[in-house]
Amino acid sequence: MLEIKNITFPVSYDDKQIKEIIAQRIGIQTQEIEAFKYLRKSIDARKKSDVKFCANIGVTIRPGKVSEEQIVSACVQQLVDVRTFVPPMQRHVKKAVSKLPPVVCGAGPAGMFAAYKLALAGLKPILIERGADADTRLRQIEEFNNGGVLDLKSNVQFGEGGAGTFSDGKLTTNIHDERVQDVLNIFYQCGAPEEILYLAKPHLGTDNLCNIVKNLRKKIIENGGTVRFMTELTDILIEDSKVCGVVVNNDEVIQTDKLIIAAGHSARDVFEMLYRHNVDMESKPFSIGVRVEHLQEEINKAQYGEFAKYLGAADYKLSCHLPSGRSVYTFCMCPGGSVVAASCEEGKLVVNGMSKFDRSGVNSNSAVLCNVEPTDFHSNHVLAGIDFQQKYEILAFELGGGNYSAPAQLLGDFLKKRASRGAGHIQPTYPRGVTWCDLSKCLPQFAVEAIREALVIFGRKLRGFDNKDAVLTGVETRSSSPVRIKRNEQYQSVNLSGLYPCGEGAGYAGGITSAAVDGIRIAEAIIEQLNYGNN
Fold it and tell me: Are the C-beta atoms of 522 and 89 separated by less than 8 Å?
């Protein structure tokens, strides 16, 4: 197969027209092309009058009068970027032996990928998760959304797949690591659509993720691992500054000398338990803000203009650095999605966003977040960031009416510093209903001022972003962990041997893909350490 790089073509072109472009680029007849497939595909929307696709394409040539070698030679002379396709090397997992099974706490992407790699190595990991399996969890969330009681163990934050299961399922990441391709391949093997292997901005959607995580669980079990739901890590057993076991559900002991903590950014009780054991941690920056909702059709037009009809749901990513020193940015943008009731504690209200794979909802939504620094906590306590988050989650709960309805405000009213009385032409999607109010009452003043300033700037960057009828819903506090569990070059806690801080909650990832990569990285480190110790 040949790889042709940097082919551009109009977004309206069909496969026949694309094949003609390929043939022209490499100097052959279209009938000599047996098949083609995308190796990389992105949208170039820098010119709204000329939105187009840019792709790297793999081409198979029919056996006959011209060979791939001849085509490559001719293209080199014409300075055309064509080469024989070299597939990426497959990553293989080494086998290892351990007297005790590793325990993985948390069935989000970090924990599940770590457990899968450990299972492939023959180490029979035990994956524990406080929440329920994906199907049960989905029913529990639907019951809560329909006015039921919040399950404190199994909800949008906790359960199989982790918090990322109820998101847009974005797989983009800023990290450059060969394990990224490994993550995408595993997702594909577990039922993800093939397009995630080549799209520049792949996503899975909540509906796909619920099935994918079930298939990944099956792979863990098929390879000798154990997956236990409704199993909460309540303590760690320690001897001579080394992990020697864990306590789950307050009374059951599991012996282990390797514990991967991949509990997520909302596992506040885990942070408190580690603090009691003097595990070395530090406060870290995070963000606070609101969700903003626009009509998806208006975002599509703003991004793609007349080409929107060919391209489906558009996304965006905006940021600004303000004179005050604060930064404001959009995060976890969900095209054609809805705002999520993401609370996991009594009397505290949290929102997030999600989309299904087809992104067919009427609204788009995104977090608009302001950075929070440890100096904002007004405390040197390592867990002060959690207290900061809880303060505003409680205020949001009370402002919403004390029943998990969310406080909401029109963007125009937020800018004019007045409470809202109802919706304009954009209807909120938060499932338990909203209470119209003044959102400044559940946000720190520095965030209110920064977000007000940023909304105007974003309106200049993306037409219609500052629409007065756009709906703001609060409060979003869980974009990242407020704590980092320190680890050394062996990926272990700096002062507790056998404890492996992992993923987003531990402060080492930001999103599904980077969390999964960190899980693989930890698993590989454990495998290498076992093999080194056994040699």
Answer: no
Q: Evaluate the CA torsion angle 322, 325, 326, 327 in order and state its sign.
A: positive
Q: Is 285 exposed, middle or buried (0-12, 13-18, 19+ CB in 10 A)?
A: middle
Mean pLDDT score, 414-426 = 97
3-state secondary structure of 390: helix
DSSP-derived letter for residue 493 is: B
246, two tokens:
């864990």
Position 535 scores a pLDDT of: 42
Grouping H, G, I as helix, E, B as strand and the rest as coil, residue 69 is helix
- Strand pairing class (338-341; 351-354): antiparallel
Helix (H) or strand (E) run with residue 209 in it: helix 205-222
pLDDT surpasses 70 at 88: yes
Query: Whole-model pTM?
Result: 0.94
Residue whose pair of structure tokens reads 């977040």 in the numeric block: 369
Q: Around Cβ 13, how many Cβ atoms within 10 Å?
A: 15
Q: How far is CA 6 from CA 51, 198, 200, in A?
A: 15, 13, 13
Sign of the C-alpha dihedral, residues 528, 532, 534, 535?
A: positive
448 three-state secondary structure: helix
Tally the C-alpha atoms within 13 A of residue 383's C-alpha that lie toward its C-beta.
16
- pLDDT tens digits along 379-391: 999 999 999 999 9
Query: Half-sphere exposure of 352 toward its Cβ, with a 13 Å CA cutoff?
Result: 23
3-state secondary structure of 14: coil
Residues 6+ apart with CB under 8 A from 375: none
DSSP secondary structure code for residue 8 in this structure: E
Nearest 5°: phi and psi at 337?
Answer: -120, -160
Closest C-alpha to 457, from 466, 448, 449 = 466
- The neighbour count for residue 307, using CB atoms within 10 Å, is 21
pLDDT in tens, 134-193: 999 999 999 999 999 999 999 999 999 999 999 999 999 889 899 999 999 999 999 999
Three-state DSSP class for residue 278: coil
| Rg, Å, the chain Cα set | 25
- Which residues lie closer than 8 Å to 252 by C-beta, 6 or more apart? none
Q: Which 3 state secondary structure label does DSSP give 106?
A: coil
